[in-house]
Amino acid sequence: MFIVDSDNNPIQKFKLMNISSVISFNQPQLCPSATWNHNAIPFADRSIVGESLWTIFINTNNTIYTINKIKKKILIWNQNNLNFTYITLDDFLYPVSLFVTSNGDIYFDNDHMGNGTVQRWDSKTYAFES
Which InterPro entries match (predicted)? Predict the structure, then answer.
């Protein structure tokens, strides 16, 4: 389980017990012997994710996505890699939420405080589309 702490701004990874009746929509692939770790260690802090982290998305390949809304970047961690890549959102106002499709397209809001539009980053063309 990945937890976003919007007050302290870390992202923490917790290993869960193997018993669960709740199924995630995007169903990340957890190890069958995963157990709860009471001493999870943040792998990204406010220097990386920025202030007031609002969203996190984990796909079926355990790739983690979030938005640093001040630096206007979508941050991406591939499974078992503490180094992240990013997509720059220079022309966007204040993105805070996102969803990633099974083919890798990323949908995100463009200014949650104002115009209410959703943008798409196309994983095939590496370009933004409305």
Answer: 6-blade_b-propeller_TolB-like
DSSP one-letter string for 58-70: E-TT--EEEEETT
Q: Each residue of 95-117: b (16+ CB within 10 Å) or e?
A: bbbbbbeeeeebebbbeeeeeee
Query: Rounded to an integer, what distance in angstroms lies between the CA atom of residue 83 and that of residue 24?
Result: 25
User: What is the amino acid identity at position 58?
Assistant: I
Q: Does residue 11 lie in a domain region?
A: no
Distance CA(103)–CA(61), nearest Å, equals: 11
DSSP characters over 28-58: ----TT----TT--EEE-HHHH-SS---EEE
Residue 1 falls within a domain, yes or no? no
Structure-block tokens of residue 40: 């999870």
Is 52 domain-assigned? yes
This prediction has a pTM of 0.70
Q: Please enumerate in sequence order all residues whose Cβ is within 8 A of that of 53, keeping only pairs 6 or more positions apart, or say none.
A: 4, 5, 6, 9, 11, 66
